[in-house]
Write a structure and sequence with these properties.
242 residues, alpha/beta, TIM Barrel, 42% helix, 14% strand
């Protein structure tokens, strides 16, 4: 599972064999340049989800419900989830929270909206949590996962927890688990695509790994373009019309 926010990226990831594409509210940080995910709006999520949904031919596409659309009254959240399914070609929504979100998850699933639950570190609750901190309470994590599963979540994403905590959660529930900063003992992994291809603009989390350096390639291409334009070697006859 990897994040995607636009058509060309989603198309590449889909063709590469990525099973699930996440249109994450991380768009606020890695694309818009904010310090948190909190400024992202529902309309912006729909905008990006439309692009990703059109590109995906085989991958499942999951869309984040942004703050505060996943925290306001339950009917509002159901309506937002319905927008995702009606206005994009995406398949499910992701909702931050565990036991405290059980009623909301149940209502959304009952309305025909598949829900991926998100437990552990919740970036939308960063101010309540006092920052981006490792979540160590295994009992609470297991209880959150069980509550989400019982409410109808088809998968549970676990963020920024010790490996043994993620293993305990995976053992405790029957639906798949997806880890990010949660060690290897989960059903699958998710990372932010920009982090794995070298398009980061600052801090890189401990739990990510660089699998390429697209940023370097882009910088070199832009430098070469500038040099050739200034030298008068671009455009050449081959790139000009007669």
């Amino acid at each position: 599972m990897l994040t995607a926010y636009d058509f060309p990226t989603a198309k590449i990831l889909d063709e590469a064999g990525v099973d699930v594409l996440l249109v994450g509210d991380t768009v606020g940080m890695v694309v818009q340049g904010h310090s948190t995910t909190l400024p992202v709006t529902m309309d912006q999520m729909i905008y990006h989800s439309e692009m990703v949904g059109r590109a995906a031919q085989r991958a499942m596409v999951v869309v984040d419900l942004p703050f505060p659309d996943g925290q306001l009254d339950i009917l509002h959240s159901v309506k937002c989830g319905a927008r995702v399914l009606k206005e994009t070609q995406c398949h499910a929504v992701k909702l931050e929270g565990g036991a405290e979100q059980a009623e909301r998850i149940e209502a959304m699933v009952r309305a025909g909206i598949p829900v991926m639950a998100h437990i552990g570190l919740g970036p939308q609750s960063v101010h309540v949590l006092g920052g981006y901190r490792l979540q160590r309470d295994i009992d609470r994590l297991v209880a959150d996962a069980k509550a989400a599963e019982a409410a109808g979540a088809f998968v549970v994403l676990i963020e920024c927890v010790p490996s043994q905590a993620a293993a305990a959660v995976t053992e405790a529930i029957s639906v798949p688990t997806i880890g990010i900063g949660a060690g290897p003992d989960v059903s699958g992994q998710v990372l932010v695509t920009h982090d794995i291809v070298g398009l980061t603009s600052g801090y890189t989390p401990k739990f990510t790994r660089s699998f390429g350096d697209v940023g370097l390639v882009m910088r070199e291409a832009a430098q070469s373009y500038c040099q050739e334009v200034k030298a008068g070697t671009f455009p050449s006859d081959a790139e000009s019309f007669e």
